[in-house]
Amino acid sequence: HRHLLGIAGLQPWEIEFLLDEAEQWVDLNRQASKHDDRLAGLTLINAFFENSTRTLLSFEIAGKRLGADVVNMHAAQSSVKKGETLIDTAVTLNSMRADAIVIRHGSSGAVQLIADKVGCPVLNAGDGTHEHPTQALLDALTIRRRKGQIAGLRVAICGDILHSRVARSNMICLSTLGAEVRVAGPPALMPPAVESMGGTPCRSFAEALDGADVVMMLRLQNERMQGQFIPSPREFRHLYGLTDAKLALAKPDALVMHPGPMNRGIEIDSHIADNAERSAITDQVEMGVAMRMACLDVLTRRRRGVEGWA
Ligand code: CP
After folding, report:
1. Position in ligand 1 atom list of the atom nearest CA 51
2. CB-ligand 1 contact for 52 (6 Å cutoff)
3. 110-169 residue pLDDT tens
4. What is the pTM for the complete model shown?
5. Can you say which residues are annotated as belonging to the binding site?
6. Pairing of the two strands 255-257 and 154-158
7. 295 and 2 in contact (C-beta within 8 Å)?
8. Whole-number Å distance between alpha carbons of 56 and 60
9. How far apart are CA 96 and CA 222, in angstroms?
10. 3-state secondary structure at position 32
11. Tens of pLDDT, residues 14-48
12. Are 14 and 172 within 8 A, CB to CB?
């Protein structure tokens, strides 16, 4: 079996293949009856060691729409709270003969550790500040559907880059697909190795926004701060928040994106987030279900005796 632990290492054709696979599920999800039973008899476990609304629910809905039996494990209500180790938890999930396991964890690398201990495909639903591959795939699907193609686009990723697994996965994904990815944020929230992930670090927000086709704003992740100096919320909005004046620097038809959850009025002004023409934020959530259906289908093909992906 093969896992989906990150975008790093995926070939452009593999990313395009997953995006193409998701299109059929976008169509199905817009019909009154949203059911396909190709995962009937399979058990999907969603093990979430960190909070989530979009990722957890969309994996649950994706599994159910494909006919799988879906079980959710919330770490806060599990034996993790009694001190059970991550590896013992993985071995326990494995013994229940899951056919796919989706994991979110607060530590970078934790999902890889679990993947090494289980006998089924593992999908990374976000590990620490490392990767969030299905988010990058759903973002790429959203951009491809709204802009027609990804190659040649200028994408600005702005905000708390340091703590963002979404920024990492998106830099790798969009640059692999041929986009120019410009990255900007407060100096204390810029990671050192942006170029190695396919991004171009910018000295100012204005430089990143200049002529952008897509503006992706990121959440200020207050829960992950470790003493970094960051501006106050008012200063942050002034310097790095997406306002009308700053959005005017991007192309007139620039698409506005945010993975959610948003800090409205800090990294993005509410009326921009809610502008149905400019903002693709609700599209991103819709694409998330279709993209996760595609990932679950493709990764369990070998198990189902269907021609596999790798
Ligand atoms: N975008 C995202 O991962 O959102 P959740 O934390 O709600 O899953």
Report:
1. 6
2. yes
3. 999 999 999 999 999 999 999 999 999 999 999 999 999 999 999 999 999 999 999 999
4. 0.96
5. 54-55, 82, 104, 132, 135, 165, 219, 260-261
6. unpaired
7. no
8. 6
9. 36
10. coil
11. 999 999 999 999 999 999 999 999 999 999 999 99
12. no
Q: Are 128 and 106 in contact (CB under 8 A)?
A: yes
What is the distance in A from the centroid of ligand 1 to the CA of 111?
Answer: 16
Rounded to a whole number of angstroms, the CA Rg of the chain reads 19
- Dig out the tokens for 101 from the structure: 């396991």
Do 182 and 153 meet the contact criterion of CB atoms below 8 Å apart?
no
- CA-based torsion, 228, 233, 238, 242: positive or negative: positive
- Tell me the backbone φ, ψ of residue 200, rounded to 5 degrees: -115, 115
> For residue 43, with 0-12 CB atoms within 10 Å meaning exposed, 13-18 middle and 19 or more buried, which class applies?
middle
CA distance 236 to 299: 41
Which amino acid does the sequence have at 214?
A: V
What whole-number distance in Å separates Cα of residue 38 and Cα of residue 70? 14
- 135 alpha carbon to ligand 1 midpoint, in Å? 8
How far CA 235 is from CA of 16, 154, 188, 228, 271, in Å, comes to 40, 27, 14, 15, 19
